[in-house]
Amino acid sequence: GDRCEAVAKQRDVTNPDSEPLREALIRFLRSGYSTVPPPRQPILGFGSLLSEASARSTFPNLANFRLAKLNDFRRVMRHPAGVFFNRGIANLQSKEVSSLSVEPAPGNSFLVAAFDLPADELPAFYEREEEFFIVEAPIQELDGRQEERGLLCCAGSDDEYLARWGPEVFAERYGVHGLHTVWGWEGPILPCRVYLRHCILAATKPGDNVRQDFLDNTYLWDRKTTIGQHIAANPSIMEELPPESLRARYSG
Fold first, then answer.
1. Comparing C-alpha atoms, which of 130, 173, 123 is closest to residue 153?
2. What is the rounded distance in angstroms from the CA atom of residue 48 to the CA atom of residue 55?
3. Which of 163, 194, 238, 242 has the most crowded Cβ, counting Cβ within 10 A?
4. pLDDT tens digits, one per residue of 120-135
5. Under a CB-based contact definition with an 8 Å cutoff, are residues 47 and 129 in contact?
């Protein structure tokens, strides 16, 4: 009986007096917790974030930058961005004010960048992407293997924006520039020239295949005209240099 009790006690690693548990705790404490990685969240980039240099300028602590494929979404330049007005690169007279978003579109696919962001930096990510409806979307490795899901900036709605930020913020970021809507724009709206050039330069850096994918699989507001066609008709966009103060930020 005594022998059985002794064996049972030796095998009870949950007992705080047990030797295996003490040794495991000592090893863990001596490691300085360095073996426990911080939680990270995959982020998906489909415009300026296609360039690792551009992504790192915005998110210096990103890790594991790689390319992937996103299925069943479409990339569209269809909404104005308040920040373009703040930085003096929007032209409301010519309607060249639009930024980039994605929307569900079964059967469509295009290349994206994926990278991991420390979880404690997610609030800053949501603040930066303030107008978007952010969802989790599955991506594929370029060899076809399924990977984890990443956060994706989708087209939202004015109602959702107002519910999240309130009418005062909308007036401050959009109304002050003569805009009455973010996502309800009716009729033609064209890409902000400096921003579109920035996105094309960013897409060029990972390789010609990524640049061509961006030109072929990004659309104007009508969902018919590709960015490649728009650039062919307006080649001067690639000569549209940003203001000196924004040269580093808007050069891919």
1. 130
2. 7
3. 194
4. 899 989 988 999 999 9
5. no
